[in-house]
Design a protein that fits this description.
Length: 552
């Protein structure tokens, strides 16, 4: 019985224990559930806050991106103004140089660059000089400026700062034209960059183009058509006036770069002449000249045998003048001596006549009447003799005067000849090559047989020293050059390359306008040779390069 009761007590205790255990588990679960619910609630609150913050940040980011794109629109608009004009042609404002851009660019386009509405916001553009170590924020010296474009959308504002470079033009071809190019004959183009290119069409071809021929338009085989266009510089002759040794004015005078008159003879400029024939108005050089860079406000033409004047022509002229002076003095002395001899001869003749008359009178007083008659006859003869002697004296005097006159005429002829020689000596050719650079506001015409090479002034930058011809209108490069020349040849309009010419450099026809009529269209023909292996030049690209940008 006790055993049974004991077993029952153990069983009851186990049930109680089991029930208590189950009761404790339910409480823990409840507690766990409550804790879990609290945690979820906290996480929900945090997530909501995070989501709310993200939504706000996303909204602000969207606004800043919109402001950024608005600012970028202002940047692109500015680049368009800098690179192209209102007709969509280059150059734009950058063609005036970055110093001009710093001063007037924004004000010139204020209606489109200041608080301009775009994309639901506005943009404003400003320009500033970079730190080019010149201490002047209004003058650019390194062809680099900063452009700031600020875009605003609602309360968000973003500024983009871009670094712009107006780089130096690098010619890729020996001959480049903007408009059509006609190739006649078989011109020779050689060098590592010895190629021909046109941004339009090319008619004809040459088999002696080392690096080939290309055209943006159509061309004859083996030329490659459909090539990319090249951005060409536009030369402004006035940019180089300050480098000129001599300025050939439109008024027919010659000055220096500061507009001060120069001595024509002393500077050996006697063979430069200003002419206006209707078909040509400008300066012509036919003969020798001094070396230098010549800037013409009109056109320039070289014709005949052009070379350098002799350096000692002035000394020779002075010596000739001294000889003329000595010769004149000697002639005067001879004339004076001749005059004295004539006077002595006249005096002697008269004395003889007087003696003869005196003798006749003595004989007459001692003789008879018959003798008087004879004496009368003799007196008549004496008179005749006196008259004859006087006539002889006159003839002698006349002869002396004639001789003096002849001598004087000969002396004058000698002096005239000497004067002519002096004039020739003033512009005497040395036979050496004339070192010159020609810069003309209008046309440049090369003809005849010029013996020339490009002028280099050591005080000028290398790119200026490399200039040969720069024309504001057409350039007609012909004639028969006696030697190879080196340099850059560029025309603002058309070019005609003919004759026997050997050039080491490159040639560009920008074809900006068609106001000149010296050259109708671009052409190259004859025995024209160009060798181009790269050459530093002073021309800026007509399009601005965006070097880099950053969001401020």
């Amino acid at each position: 019985m006790k055993k049974y009761l004991g077993q029952r007590m153990v069983a009851l205790r186990q049930k109680i224990y089991d029930r208590l255990l189950r009761s404790n588990e339910s409480g823990a679960a409840l507690v766990a559930s409550i804790l879990f619910a609290a945690t979820v609630s906290v996480l929900a609150v945090v997530a909501f806050q995070w989501a709310s913050g993200d939504i706000k940040r996303t909204g602000r980011y969207v606004l800043t991106r919109e402001a950024f794109y608005i600012a970028e629109a202002g940047l692109q608009k500015s680049l368009n103004f800098l690179n192209y004009n209102s007709d969509g042609e280059y150059p734009g404002d950058a063609g005036q140089g970055f110093t001009e851009v710093l001063g007037t660019f924004v004000s010139d386009h204020s209606s489109e660059l200041e608080s301009f509405s775009f994309g639901g916001g506005t943009y404003t553009v400003s320009v500033a000089d970079n730190d080019d170590n010149d201490g002047d924020l209004t003058v650019d010296v390194d062809n680099t400026i900063l452009l700031n474009a600020t875009g605003t959308k609602d309360s968000s504002s973003v500024t983009i700062q871009a670094i712009l470079l107006h780089g130096i033009f690098g010619a890729k071809h020996a001959i480049t034209t903007e408009d059509d190019l006609q190739i006649n004959g078989n011109p020779n183009v050689q060098g590592t960059s010895g190629s021909i290119h046109s941004n339009s069409d090319i008619t004809g071809n040459s088999n002696d183009v080392e690096q080939g021929t290309t055209a943006a338009g159509v061309c004859d085989s083996p030329c490659v058509e459909g090539a990319a266009k090249e951005v060409l510089p536009v030369a402004e002759p006035a940019d180089f006036k300050t480098y000129a040794n001599f300025v050939l004015t439109s008024e027919g005078t010659i000055t220096d770069a500061d507009d001060s008159a120069v001595d024509i003879s002393e500077n050996k400029l006697d063979n430069w002449s200003y002419t206006d024939t209707g078909s040509f108005t400008g300066w012509v050089l036919n003969g020798c000249s001094a070396d230098g860079m010549f800037f013409a406000e009109t056109s320039i033409k070289l014709t005949g045998n052009v070379d350098k004047c002799s350096e000692d022509s002035a000394d020779s002229s002075d010596k000739d003048k001294d000889k003329d002076s000595d010769s004149s003095d000697k002639d005067k002395d001879k004339d004076a001596d001749s005059g004295d001899k004539d006077k002595d001869s006249d005096s002697s003749d008269k004395d003889k006549d007087k003696d003869a008359d005196s003798g006749d009178k003595d004989k007459d007083s001692d003789s008879s009447d018959k003798d008087k008659d004879k004496d009368a006859d003799s007196g008549d003869k004496d008179k005749d003799s006196d008259s004859s002697d006087k006539d002889k004296d006159k003839d002698a005097d006349s002869g002396d005067k004639d001789k003096d006159s002849d001598s004087s005429d000969k002396d004058k002829d000698k002096d005239a000849d000497s004067g002519d020689k002096d004039k020739d000596s003033d512009s005497a050719s040395s036979g050496d090559a004339l070192k010159l650079t020609l810069i003309a506001e209008e046309d440049i015409i090369i003809s005849g047989n010029p013996n020339i090479e490009n002028y280099k002034n050591d005080s000028h930058p290398e790119e200026i020293q490399n200039l040969l011809f720069v024309s504001g209108l057409d350039l007609d490069f012909g004639g028969n050059l006696t030697q190879s020349v080196q340099g850059v040849v560029i025309a603002k309009e058309q070019i005609s390359l003919t004759g026997s010419v050997s050039l080491s450099g490159y040639i560009i026809a920008s074809d900006v306008t068609s106001s000149g009529d010296t050259v109708g269209s671009n052409s190259v023909s004859g025995n024209f040779e160009v060798t181009y292996n790269g050459l530093k030049n002073p021309f800026l690209n007509d399009q601005v390069t965006l070097l880099s940008w950053k969001e401020k």
